[in-house]
Design a protein that fits this description.
Elements lengths: L1 H23 L18 E5 L5 E8 L3 E7 L3 E6 L8 E6 L9 H7 L19 E10 L4 E10 L2 E16 L6 E12 L15 E12 L1
Antiparallel strand pairs: 1-4, 1-10, 2-3, 2-10, 4-5, 5-6, 6-7, 7-8, 8-9, 9-10
Amino acid sequence: MRKSLLTIAAAAGVAALSVGTLHAQGEAPLLPGTLDTGRVTAGTYQLDAAHTLVGWRVDHFGFNDYFGLFGNVEGTLVIDPANLASAQLDVSIPVAEVTTASTGLTEHLLRAGSDGGQPDFFGAQPAPARFISTSVEPTGETTANVTGDFTLNGVTRPVTIAAEFTGAGANPRNRAETIGFEGTATINRSEFGIGYAIPMVSDAVELDLSAAFEKQ
């Protein structure tokens, strides 16, 4: 037993020395996820809500951009690497949990309209926004345009997300097959009945998405 322990300790020391040498040589350690589409397998994937974000950005008075975030996003992705055009995406975004760096702004975004009138932005207890894909058009080896019906503030309109595959592999914590994507889209908030302060605060809202999906 003592000999085995010494052998294990020696092996561990060699491994630690090797890692230290790699760092000293400036070589980055291997990551669980890599930009390898061959790692993606067909099936149904669920959004990893803890590691998925939807960012939004608007122009404020023409001086600078202001941005915020939505987290706790839920949804599913059905994908077959052999037939990407058949992929199906269904995502729900909890608008009521909008996050900004300003307490006052967050309160304004979720403030009810005065005297029962129309709110300036989302209003109190807004329903989640939802995106349901209607088509997926591959545009490159790792990119695609994902078009779907986007519902916000009770209004549904078509929106196209420019999506890019960013990595795949096994999550080291739960060993779940995981795939990651980033995406961008732009909507005009006035089309969804949110017209407060236009054009002082831009009608155009840029969306920036970062999503991780785990296979079920």
